[in-house]
Write a structure and sequence with these properties.
Strand content: under 5%
Radius of gyration: 19 Å
Oligomer: single chain
Shape: globular
Structural class: mainly alpha
Largest sheet: 2 strands, antiparallel
Order of helices and strands: HHHHHHHEEHHH
Strand order of the largest sheet: 1-2
Number of strands: 2
Helix content: over 70%
Distance between the termini: 30 Å
Number of helices: 10
């Protein structure tokens, strides 16, 4: 799953969009499947329809807001017509679409920006290299638990190592890229690395908190040896989101 993903990132455009849509659909399935362990009853059909509409509308946020309001309007009526559902089921249905659908799409949306074929790699540098740096920092120096009730193995030392790794490697990437194209000042790469390191770790903890709440170890076994889509891409989802917003509103790309 990881190797094909890298290939689609290189291809970009419609190919990356289609692949991200596929990943989003599988992540949405995993999220709904996990919540069923606690006897929640997400209205899955609505979630998948929203996901497909979102990509058909070419990730048009403004129009999608109208669709989302209408969907919420309809969803809130369903528990009145069918008492096996509740407003909680409505809430988790919409949450799944936003989490696994919209947040995942920022990876593709970064690629569509000017020089996006370069910028999209910041997502992986800021998340996967952060995870690697955090693992080795925690293994060598970890003594103080970061969030033991959510993820017992994570340490404060590992977290700091992850932040340093994400910031440093993103900055180095920016220095290298700046020799070929002037996208933004070098310091923005370091800031993006720091932000993706912070929020990528939050993405990991969010996914872990859901698993702990519903009592599962992995979201699925879709990726042999790594668990599910949400197990492998949890930090990427959050890193992509914060990078997209930083590029849009701070760098103004």
């Amino acid at each position: 799953m990881i190797a094909p993903f890298i290939i689609f990132v290189f291809l970009g455009g419609i190919y990356l969009k289609g692949f991200v849509l596929t990943l989003s659909a599988m992540a949405l399935w995993e999220f709904y499947r996990a919540l069923k362990q606690k006897e929640f009853k997400p209205i899955e059909l609505i979630g998948y329809v929203l996901l497909i509409l979102y990509y058909i509308l070419n990730n048009n946020f403004e129009f999608m807001m109208y669709v989302l309001v209408i969907a919420t309007f309809i969803l809130l009526i369903i528990p009145v017509m069918d008492l096996k559902y509740s407003f909680i089921d409505v809430a988790v249905t919409l949450l799944g679409f936003i989490y696994a659908g919209i947040l995942f799409s920022f990876l593709y949306l970064i690629n569509t920006k000017s020089s996006g074929e370069f910028l999209v790699w910041l997502v992986f540098i800021g998340s996967w290299l952060s995870d690697t740096a955090a693992f080795y920092s925690g293994k060598l120096f970890g003594k103080h638990k970061l969030c033991p009730k959510v993820s017992p193995k994570k340490t404060i030392e590992g977290s700091i190592g992850g932040l340093v790794g994400a910031t440093l490697f993103s900055g180095i990437f920016g220095i290298i890229i700046s020799n070929y194209t002037n996208i933004m000042p070098i310091y923005d790469y370091f800031i993006i690395g720091l932000l993706s390191g912070i929020f990528g770790q939050f993405g990991d903890l969010v996914a872990s908190s859901v698993k702990r709440y519903v009592g599962i170890k992995d979201y699925s076994n879709l990726i042999p040896g790594h668990g599910g889509i949400l197990d492998r891409f949890d930090s990427i989802i959050f890193a992509a989101t914060i990078i997209f917003y930083y590029l849009t509103f701070i760098v103004k790309i």
